[in-house]
Design brief:
Length: 361
């Protein structure tokens, strides 16, 4: 019996201890659960805080983006409004005969380069008209030789270009775009691109040859309108083999080719979106075709006029900013109406330097 006494006592002691232990254990479990919940709560709070911070950051960035003027990466400088043609739908008409002195134009181009310009396109009017192409040649040379712009291009109707111009300036030029709306001379006459005794189409062939001989990338621009919308240009375009064939839908611009104070009347040239689509469909096998509907053109170009003012087309007419020569690029470009997203969407940024085009001359 004396043997069993300590065992009984030890058993009682153990059961009392187990009771205490179970209290301690259950308190420990509830403590741990409480701690876990607290940590979770803190974690959720902190991740909520983080996402609130990120959202505020994005908002700030967006606001900054909205207030920040766009970079003038690719600029179209229409330095003259004068032209030797009379296209009925022209959307940059001869409202003035002003052309900036060469040194002022160079100063403006330098400002644009400092603001981020990589591509300049000289246009008009007819850019070869001023000083028989010498003014244009000097600007092209300046942009390549002094400003080292990756891309220097010209849009011209091609009628005034001489081979001696190529001899003097072709090395500074990346792309020459020639406007050609039809391979039927009668249609060209109807549009207003007639050259009297000269044939616009034959002239195009000659320019194509010079571009090959003097190593300038050759491009064609066509405006699709009431008079050429049914035409099939596949064979002629393939034979000319341009690096790009830009196909525009005829565009109405108040004050230029529409409205009371306009010098042209585009109304009878306009075509519907469906008609434009029909033209594109007929030419879908032409791989160099780059289509530009009215929608794509809208606000996706940075246009400088003869005073170096950006032209804002948001309201369907060209409203000028102040000149970059007076207020600087950053201030003027705020009023350009330019939509950088639309510019990228229409493929405004492409391989635009002849060094990168790797052409088989
Ligand atoms: S060639 Fe060009 S600038 Fe000259 S009238 Fe025709 S569209 Fe206008």
């Amino acid at each position: 019996m004396w043997v069993f006494m300590p065992i009984a006592f030890a058993g009682k002691l153990l059961s009392a201890f187990r009771l205490q232990l179970s209290y301690v254990w259950s308190s420990l479990v509830s403590l741990l659960l409480g701690l876990r919940a607290a940590f979770r709560l803190a974690g959720t709070e902190s991740s909520r805080h983080q996402s609130r911070k990120a959202a505020a950051e994005t908002r700030r960035e967006e606001e900054k983006g909205m207030n920040q003027p766009p970079t003038p990466l690719s600029v179209n400088y229409h330095f003259t409004r004068q032209c030797n043609y009379k296209c009925g739908f022209c959307f940059h008409t001869a409202k003035t005969s002003f052309v900036l002195p060469l040194e002022d134009a160079k100063r403006g181009l330098l400002l644009l380069k400092e603001a981020g310009m990589e591509k300049i396109n000289f246009s008009g009017g007819e850019p070869f008209l001023q000083d028989r192409g010498e003014y244009l040649g000097q600007l092209v040379k300046f942009c390549k030789e002094e400003l080292h712009l990756p891309s220097v291009s010209i849009v011209s109707n091609g009628s005034l270009i001489r081979e001696r111009w190529f001899r003097s300036y072709a090395e500074y030029l990346d792309i020459l775009a020639i406007s050609c709306d039809s391979f039927d001379e009668q249609v060209n006459v109807l549009i207003g691109r007639g050259q009297g005794k000269k044939n616009h189409v034959q002239n195009l062939q000659k320019l194509r040859t010079w571009c090959r001989d003097y190593r300038v990338a050759f491009k064609i621009n066509s405006v699709i309108n009431r008079f050429n919308v049914e035409e099939d240009m596949r064979e002629q375009i393939k034979a000319l083999n341009p690096v790009r064939w830009k196909v525009f839908q005829c565009l109405r611009i108040e004050g230029e080719n529409a409205g009371e104070d306009a010098l042209r009347e585009a109304e009878r040239f306009l075509i519907s979106d469906e008609e434009f689509e029909g033209f594109l469909h007929r030419h879908k096998e032409v791989s160099c075709l780059v289509p530009e509907s009215n929608q794509k053109m809208k606000d996706s170009y940075l246009i400088l006029d003869e005073y170096m003012r950006f032209l804002n087309c948001r309201n369907g007419r060209k409203e000028p900013s102040k000149s970059i020569l007076d207020v600087g690029v950053e201030e003027a470009v705020k009023f350009s109406g330019f939509d950088e997203k639309m510019f990228l969407k229409r493929g405004g940024k492409y391989v635009w330097s002849k060094a990168d085009l790797q052409l088989d001359w």
